[in-house]
Amino acid sequence: MRSFAIAAAAATLISSTYAAPWGAGGLWGRKPDPSKCLTKDAATALAEGFQGLIVAYTTENAQALLAEDLVDYSNSIKSLQGFPVDPFTPVFPSKAAFMAGQGAQPSVPLEILAIDAFNCQNVTLRWDANFGNGNLVAGITHLTASNSQGKADTWQISAIYTEFDSLAWFKAIGGTVTPPGQ
Ligand SMILES: *[C@@H]1O[C@H](CO)[C@@H](O)[C@H](O)[C@H]1NC(C)=O
């Protein structure tokens, strides 16, 4: 049975204050500096890295891909867990909490539909996950990146904002939904 493991960690808000590498210094000569601004390749690598953690989680990949100050926001995941929802409290307030939660979850067949937008610091993707029996879940994920190691290929994910059809996912994992008034 597929289900999100409930992270026991207290949902402490972590404020992440990193220096803004995409500021005026983002321009390197006339081109964006690939160590200070995501390139299309770097943005794609982060999106595919995120997909990889959902499809085939490994601790090694999580360690490499996730920044030490990672925070993950998702009311959809909180809904599945039966927790109260609000957009300001992370579902996984730390890298360790994400790793404990995601590491305990069976593989999810997440496919990237499109990487629609990226800028110096962010990449946004649309995805689906086909659980069968008509439960084709759709989702949108916004990733914020940081680059503490400062090389063109050392970008990491520092924040995840992800929302999806939690009702369809709930049905896919065996939940039943009763519409109001029935
Ligand atoms: C990246 O996304 C984060 C979270 O939504 C936002 O706070 C930040 O301003 C964005 N950065 C840029 C350069 O758009």
From TrEMBL:
Keyword Signal appears in the UniProt entry: yes
User: Which InterPro entries would you find in this protein's record?
Assistant: NTF2-like_dom_7
Q: Which Pfam families does the record cross-reference, listed alphabetically?
A: NTF2_7
Look up the signal peptide feature and give its range. 1-19
| Alphabetically ordered keywords of this record | Signal
Outline the extent of the NTF2-like domain.
36-175
What's this protein's name? NTF2-like domain-containing protein
